[in-house]
Amino acid sequence: MAILDLRCVADDVFIGSHASKNPPRTFGGQLMAQSFVAASRTLTRDLPANAFSVHFVNGGDTDKDIEFRVLRLRDERRFANRRIDVTQNGTLLATAMISYLSGGRGLEHNIEPPDVAQPDALTPVKELLRGYEDKVPLFVNALQPIEWRYTNDPSWVMRDKGERLDYNRVWVKADGKLPDNPTLHTATMLYCSDTTVLDSIITTHGLSWGFDRIFAATVNHSVWFHRQVNFDDWVLYSTSSPVATDSRGLGTGYFFDRSGQPVATVVQEGVVKYFPSSRG
């Protein structure tokens, strides 16, 4: 919650910090969550977000704060649009667009969720990391504000078994009680949406982080919000990869609540480079 507590330094300008533990460059999910909070704090009406899209331009320095400059593109009774430019020392890190829409009642239909075990019957991710400390140290030592329960073997266990998997399905929720604030629940889901979504690109080929020489970086990320999420409760994140080519891969996913209703749809494109060993 500390990284989502942005500091307002001027009209529609906010400063965000990094967490106590960080990857080598600023985590994309952090930038998305902070951008969402910054934009939502400029709303003149209480409108739900319906779409979020971001293009990542440069990597961020985790030792420095980040500036979020919000541009108010539209404000109407049922609609609002915001653009957020994310910079660090004058360098553009990312640009995000958020649409807010209160549409009212209308037609409804839903995609069916996959048939998976319930989270209470599954092993916590910390236990799945035991014995793999030397293979995936970044995962083991990372800050873990999200609780994960995989319904399938995670990539490092799958790779150790010599298997392949063209999807990943994991129950997720905040590791702790969130404030009663819909913006923070959605922002936390956005933060989480940048995890596991590209995994199916490599697990389709029987590969895993840590075991194989893989470089990955997110290029763009989009989320469509269908219902307000309660991230204090378990949400199923079901992802797969429809295509990979030209050292780029697409990951797609859905968040489902415990009742099976889709909460959000995610599409992410990443640069994914695989360097086979000379013996391969």
Automatic annotation (TrEMBL):
Assigned keywords, A-Z: Hydrolase
The answer to keyword Lyase applying to this record is no
List the Pfam families hit by this protein, alphabetically. Answer: 4HBT_3 (PF13622), Acyl_CoA_thio (PF02551)
The domain of life for this entry's organism is: Bacteria
What are the residue boundaries of the Acyl-CoA thioesterase 2 C-terminal domain, all occurrences included? 140-271
GO biological process terms, alphabetically, are: acyl-CoA metabolic process; fatty acid catabolic process
Question: Which residue ranges does the record assign to the Acyl-CoA thioesterase-like N-terminal HotDog domain?
Answer: 25-100
Q: Which GO-annotated molecular functions does the record name?
A: fatty acyl-CoA hydrolase activity
Q: Which Gene3D superfamilies match?
A: Acyl-CoA thioesterase, double hotdog domain
UniProt record similarity statement:
Belongs to the C/M/P thioester hydrolase family.
What is the name listed in the Swiss-Prot or TrEMBL entry for this protein?
Answer: Acyl-CoA thioesterase II
